Amino acid sequence: DTAVSQTPKYLVTQMGNDKSIKCEQNLGHDTMYWYKQDSKKFLKIMFSYNNKELIINETVPNRFSPKSPDKAHLNLHINSLELGDSAVYFCASSQAGTPGGSPLHFGNGTRLTVT
Amino acid sequence: GQQVMQIPQYQHVQEGEDFTTYCNSSTTLSNIQWYKQRPGGHPVFLIQLVKSGEVKKQKRLTFQFGEAKKNSSLHITATQTTDVGTYFCAGQATRGSTLGRLYFGRGTQLTVWP
Question: Is the pLDDT at B1 greater than 80, yes or no?
Answer without folding.
Answer: no
